[in-house]
Amino acid sequence: MExxxxxxxxxxxxxxxxxxxxxxxxxxxxxxxxxxxxxTACSMIVLNEQRDRLLRTTFWLRVM
Length: 64
Fold this sequence. Notes:
With 64 residues, the chain is mostly beta strands. It is built from no helices and 3 strands. Strands 1-2-3 form a 3-stranded antiparallel sheet, with no helix packed on it.
């Protein structure tokens, strides 16, 4: 994902050498490096101690 403008102020970003990241988008107006925003998600299955039932659901499922 390429960012061309600052998501906070709208200023055109410039590429600047970051000491640990290499060339990174930089906002002159904010004085900060800008990194792409990634949406994240988490999925999980919660089991009881016997590992034979799913928890926090509206149905029960036997785990083989």
